[in-house]
Structure formats: structure tokens, C-alpha cells
UniProtKB/TrEMBL annotation:
<protein>
    <recommendedName>
        <fullName>DUF222 domain-containing protein</fullName>
    </recommendedName>
</protein>
<feature type="region of interest" description="Disordered">
    <location>
        <begin position="239"/>
        <end position="259"/>
    </location>
</feature>
<feature type="compositionally biased region" description="Basic residues">
    <location>
        <begin position="375"/>
        <end position="386"/>
    </location>
</feature>
<feature type="domain" description="DUF222">
    <location>
        <begin position="43"/>
        <end position="355"/>
    </location>
</feature>
<feature type="region of interest" description="Disordered">
    <location>
        <begin position="349"/>
        <end position="417"/>
    </location>
</feature>
<dbReference type="InterPro" id="IPR003870">
    <property type="entry name" value="DUF222"/>
</dbReference>
<dbReference type="Pfam" id="PF02720">
    <property type="entry name" value="DUF222"/>
</dbReference>
Length: 417
């Protein structure tokens, strides 16, 4: 402590960050074999306190970056995009950082005043180096589950108690203590109401794995669950919507021929989960056919599936195509998916890269891209065209774009051939 207090440190944050970087560089080259076991443990403890304090520094820094839109200086559209792609953290870690910042960050109010953190006791513990981001995420998750009917004072006391026990427990221990706290606050679940369910509802696609499969994370309201159950009972019934069976009835069970359905059910060897997946595919195909028929209403445009693929990949039915949102799609499955769509061709740079936005119904897509040219649609240069090209750009490997906004028409359009 004496050596620490004798140091003369700069006041400028950038200069302080440079000092930390220089110190860690020097520390990385240090010979730990030359110190005693006690000194090793003391050093490990000191560094852990530093890591945790830096979590608080990180929150304060990201609040400023967000409030001032500093990420735009490097060409990013959001804080999440900056964290995920600019700092190469990935979507998962970027979400965790943002959740932590929302819990312990000191944001600026409408009148320019500095607001108290959402979890003030937790923020204090982080700044003291007593807990880290993992503890913060557990505390935030528990606080989010406290029913809205619980009064403000009780909610504040709950956060203080969680922050207090977090100083002595692991993140897993905080989770266990939090569950006990929730059981005490709402033992029979009677305090949970519609506000809580609306706040916690979600449906999110997880990143694709090495086999291009995606998991889904969801928290469904009772109403959505009830609708989904009755729909799957019909569309995912044994024998219905089986892609491996050409004689399988399509659509809802109520509209199927009873004899054909019974025969298809006998041949159906899918699991319940596989039937549910195939039912969802059939539902989405039916929805796209419905909107393509001009029944979207309100003057809205029907949805489009925009895919980039090279002429060689399409001709050989091999390789991986990319959607406008960054999803990787095997070309063999692309041809099947586009079989019931009206394809359009748009040639981009580099030569040989094509976008096939399709909607509606038409004969099966076969042969090269030149065979697929139909009407000449309008593509939005600033949105659709840019988003599609970016997915193939070598400057941004792995860079995912959000779905283009198809319902807003920029001033400039380009008609493609």
C-alpha cells in the first residue's frame, strides 16, 4: 500500500489506460518462480481485485461511449455492433457487457443529471473490487424476476442483500441465494402478473453451429404457448407435413384426407421434436404463400428472401450461400427453398455474385442463374444492395448485418438487370 500511495499517476483517462497497459506488459514478463507461495497468492488476489474494479471502469466508459455515440467514429451503428465486431467480443459477450452496464452504469438523465445505477449496492461492490461481472449478471437476473407488484422499498432491500452476499459467494452461490429470496418474496407465485410476463417475454435465434444448426432461446407468455400448442397439435400431428414422405398431407390436420393421413402416420418415424420443426417450416411456407398472393393488407410489401450465391455454387448445387441477415444456407437447401418462389437476378461486384430475392409462386428453380431471370425488381441501393454486398465483403469476415428495412423507401433506387 505504501508503494501504491507514493506513485504519481496522471489524471487523464487515456494516460492512465496507457500506464495500466505498460504495467501489465511488464507483469506478463515477470518471473513468478522467484516469489514465495504466500506472495503468489497475494498477487493473485490483488489481480482479481483489479479485474473486478476494471469491470466498473468498463461500465463507466461504455456509458460514455453510448451516450455520445462515439462508436460512430469507427463506422458502427450501435454500441452492440461496436462491442461485437469492433472489439471482436462476439454477440454473446457483447450482450453480457451491455447487461452489466445497464445494471451498474451511471447514465445521464434528460436534464443532464447523473442518475443512480439501477443496482447501486452492486455497483459499489464492483467498484470496491469485491465482485465481478459474473456476480452482476446473476444479481440482475434475480432482480428481473422480482414481481412488479413488490414495492420499491422491498426491491431496494433485496438488491442490497444480494450485493452483500455476493461479496462472500460465487456467482452460482448468488443464484441459489437469489432463488431463496424470490421464494420468500412470492412463495406461491400470486404476486406475478401480466406486467412480469410481458417484461420477460422473448424469442431469439442463437448463432449457427459448425453444422449450420441453430438453437432457439425463448420465454413464452401463456397466451403464445396456448396458441403454439394448439397449432402444433394440428400441423405437427403424426403423418402431417413430413418432408421425407411425398404423400404426406400438407397444412393443418383438419384439412387432410383421413385415409391419407392415417397411412402417412403409419410411415412416420419422426420424433415429436422433428415433427414440430417440420410443422414450423410448413407454417412459414404457408405464410409466405399467403403474403405473396397480395393479402398482406395496408399497402405493405410482401417479405423477400434475399440470398447471395456465386454462379459456380448455384450451378454445381454445392457450397454455402448467405442471406441478407448473415445466415449460412447450403446451396442444395437453397434450391429447394427457392423452388416455390419467383426468383430475380441482381449482379453485384465481385463478378459472379448474385442476389435472388424471391416471393410468390413460380416453377422450380433449376439450372444456372441466367435461367432464373424473371421480372426486374427494384432493389434499394442504400439498404438491400449494401447489406447483401457486405455479407460477402472480405473486409468484414463473419460480420452479421441486421435484416434490411424493406418497408422504408430511400430516395435513390436502382433498377437491376
Amino acid at each position: 500500500m505504501d508503494a501504491q500511495s507514493s506513485l504519481v499517476l496522471p489524471e487523464d483517462p487515456a494516460a492512465l489506460a496507457a500506464v495500466i497497459e505498460a504495467a501489465t506488459t511488464r507483469l506478463a514478463a515477470a518471473r513468478f518462480a522467484a516469489v514465495t507461495e504466500r506472495e503468489l497468492l497475494e498477487t493473485a488476489e490483488a489481480l482479481e481485485h483489479v479485474h473486478r474494479r476494471l469491470d466498473g471502469v468498463d461500465a463507466a466508459l461504455l456509458v460514455e461511449v453510448s451516450d455520445r455515440g462515439a462508436y460512430r467514429k469507427d463506422g458502427f451503428l450501435s454500441l452492440h455492433q461496436y462491442l461485437s465486431s469492433g472489439l471482436h467480443l462476439g454477440d454473446g459477450e457483447a450482450r453480457r457487457r451491455r447487461t452489466s452496464v445497464a445494471a451498474i452504469g451511471r447514465f445521464t438523465g434528460m436534464q443532464g443529471q447523473t442518475l443512480t445505477p439501477a443496482c447501486p449496492a452492486t455497483a459499489e461492490a464492483v467498484n470496491a473490487g469485491a465482485i465481478g461481472t459474473a456476480h452482476v449478471l446473476e444479481i440482475d437476473a434475480i432482480m428481473d424476476k422480482i414481481p412488479a407488484a413488490v414495492d420499491t422499498q422491498t426491491r431496494k432491500l433485496a438488491e442490497v442483500q444480494l450485493a452483500s452476499v455476493a461479496r462472500e459467494l460465487t456467482p452460482e452461490g448468488v443464484r441459489t441465494a437469489g432463488h431463496r429470496l424470490l421464494a420468500h418474496l412470492d412463495p406461491d407465485g400470486s404476486l406475478t402478473d401480466e406486467r412480469d410476463r410481458k417484461r420477460r417475454r422473448k424469442f431469439a435465434l442463437m448463432p449457427q453451429d459448425r453444422q449450420l444448426m441453430s438453437k432457439v432461446t425463448a420465454s413464452l407468455t401463456p397466451a403464445l404457448r396456448a396458441k403454439l400448442e394448439v397449432t402444433l397439435e394440428s400441423w405437427a400431428a403424426p403423418g402431417m407435413n413430413n418432408p421425407a414422405d411425398p404423400d404426406s398431407p400438407c397444412g393443418a390436420r383438419e384439412a387432410a384426407d383421413p385415409a391419407a393421413l392415417a397411412a402417412a402416420a403409419e410411415r412416420d418415424d419422426r420424433t415429436a421434436g422433428q415433427r414440430g420443426h417440420d410443422a414450423l417450416v410448413a407454417l412459414l411456407d404457408a405464410e409466405r404463400a399467403f403474403t405473396a398472393a397480395g393479402t398482406t393488407g395496408g399497402g405493405r410489401l410482401s417479405s423477400q428472401l434475399v440470398i447471395t450465391v456465386t454462379d459456380k455454387e448455384l450451378r454445381e448445387h454445392a457450397g454455402i450461400a448467405l442471406t441478407a441477415t448473415g445466415t449460412r444456407l447450403p446451396v442444395a437447401e437453397l434450391v429447394e427453398a427457392a423452388s416455390g418462389a419467383t426468383p430475380h437476378l441482381a449482379v453485384f461486384s465481385p463478378p459472379g455474385s448474385a442476389a435472388l430475392p424471391g416471393s410468390g409462386t413460380a416453377p422450380r428453380l433449376e439450372g444456372s442463374t441466367s435461367d432464373a431471370v424473371r421480372p426486374r425488381p427494384r432493389l434499394h441501393r442504400t439498404r438491400l444492395h449494401g447489406a447483401v454486398r457486405a455479407n460477402r465483403s472480405p473486409s468484414f469476415p463473419g460480420f452479421r448485418r441486421r435484416r434490411p428495412d424493406e418497408h422504408r423507401s430511400p430516395r435513390r433506387r436502382v433498377r437491376t438487370a
